[in-house]
Amino acid sequence: MSGLQQSSYWYKSAIYTLFEQFSVVLFGFGSVFLLLRVLSKEEFGIWALFLTVAAFIEVGRNGLIQNALIKHLTALNPHDAGYSRQYAVIGTASLVVNILLTAVSIALLYFFAGYMATLWRSPQLQNMFYIYAISTTALIPFSQCTFLQQANFNFRGVFWANFARQGVFFLLVLFAWFNGSASLTGIAVYHALAATAGAVVAFAFARKYLRLSANINRQWMLQLLHYGKYVFGTNLGAMLHKSIDKFMLGSMLGTGAVALYDLAIRINNLMEIPVAATASVVFPQSARNSNAGSLEAVKILYEKSVAAVLAVLLPAIALVLLYPKTIIVLIAGAKYADTAPLLQITVLYGLFMPFARQFGTIFDSIGKPRLNFLFVVLGALLNLVFNYFFIRRFGTIGAAYGTLLVFAITFVLNQIILYRQLNVRLLSIAHYVLQFYRQLLGKIDQSIAELTSAKTITVSQTAKPESNEKTV
User: Fold this and answer.
1) How far apart are CA 142 and CA 351, in angstroms?
2) Residue 75 DSSP symbol
């Protein structure tokens, strides 16, 4: 990849992934804005638990398939004679793993649906989980097609597929809100319809990358599973790390407490737009650098990507810390005003998210997913213990205290490992953050100077006497 091509890759990839993450959060925010006004606190808490369980299944699928597929496809040389055949063999093996994993997840969901409904004292959840089986089936082609596009460094179709999925769900919720018929079961059906719409769009964009082999290569299936097992465990551990607080709140304090906490987390998730977008772009490029043996390039990639995200997040975090109640009331209404103290704590997660997310992305890409997996499992276990005691002691806000403490502990451990493995330095990251702000201020000053200069020229030209008039 030449310098010009690499620059183009970063520009286009960043634009599409930012648009993708922005549209997902925008439509998700719009849907939540409406649901907060048509559902009671208890019902909204049930919906939050439903989405959390659904996210477990999706994140597990992505962990087992996505990085393994991208890693092995990007390692192929398009100029080799057997490229097309090998590409098809790997793609077919990945698709079979995708189908089998989905079948297992549906079976487990049917088996445990009643238990989870009883645990959280929410009978509606059982039928909602049965409906979700349709959603997760539709996500087989959706996920496979988006992964193939990422492996081919094409993020355009990924954006439109996610746009269709989230946009259709938002429109259906909007329709239900206008008609006053927003039931939890109906919303679960909308969720399935939206997943189907996203799958259709993903397939339309990924057709040129779909190459299937007539035979299923069991060796490649095992190889993909071997690579993906740590990422699979890492993703599930990360989800447990992020969700154990909701699960424990639901079982210990009820779904009303889940609603309050989930609202704070959803507002906090707005900050994950640049984090997730950067991770999506960094992984393929980091994998390529790792394949070329350039660990120094991987180190710089980590430092600069974390710094860029931090530079964007810091002003947003400061704003939320200063005006939490105003933000809550604008988004959810006065009945959720007591969420403000929660938001002031959960927003601090944003200080650690860029470090943690890029830590996982980098070590997965350089072929060390086991290390990332162990750290995530440690974080999940700490979160389980801390949340249990903090919720018992402080109530709903205890979940935020416990999770923040876990973020801080794992941050310290991650930085020790990064320093030893890649010589990553926090001072370098701080330097890049300051450099980002200096460049931004420089561009602002330059724009102001150019604008002032343009106005001065315009005024002088207007005031100049007309000396070239012809006399008749």
Assistant:
1) 32
2) T
Separation of alpha carbons 221 and 93, rounded Å: 5
The amino acid sitting at 283 is F
- Which pair of tokens denotes residue 384? 């389980």
Closest to 276 measured CA to CA, from 64, 32, 69, 66: 66
Span 121-150, average pLDDT: 94
Determine, yes or no, domain membership for 467: no
Percent of the residues in the chain that have a pLDDT greater than 90, as a whole number: 41
Report the alpha-carbon angle 141-142-146, nearest 5.
110
Give the per-residue pLDDT at 171. 96
Query: Is the residue at 384 inside a domain?
Result: yes
Q: pLDDT (tens digit, 9 = 90+) per residue, 148-174? A: 998 887 888 889 999 999 999 999 999
Q: Are 336 and 263 in contact (CB under 8 A)?
A: yes
Give the pTM.
0.77
Contact 52, 243 (CB under 8 A): yes
Instruction: Give the pLDDT mean for 99-119.
Output: 94
The SS3 call for residue 270 is: coil
Structure-block tokens of residue 255: 């779904």
373: CB partners within 8 A, 6+ apart: 230, 231, 233, 234, 237
Q: Is residue 394 part of a domain?
A: yes
Token couple for 440: 């931004």
Residue length, the chain?
472
Smallest CA-to-CA distance from 317 within 341, 358, 351 is with 351
Residue 467 token pair: 């000396």
**Dihedral angle over CA of 317, 319, 324, 327, nearest 10:** -110
Task: Give domain status of residue 452, yes or no.
Answer: no
Confidence label for 472 from pLDDT (cuts 50, 70 and 90): very low
What is d(CA 101, CA 60) in angstroms, rounded to the nearest whole number?
9
Angstrom CA distances, 377 to 229, 230, 235, 298, 421, stand at 13, 11, 10, 24, 20
Cα distance between residue 172 and residue 193, in whole Å = 9
CB-CB neighbours of 156 under 10 Å: 15
Q: Which range marks the domain in which residue 367 is found?
A: 11-439
| Overall domain count for the chain | 1
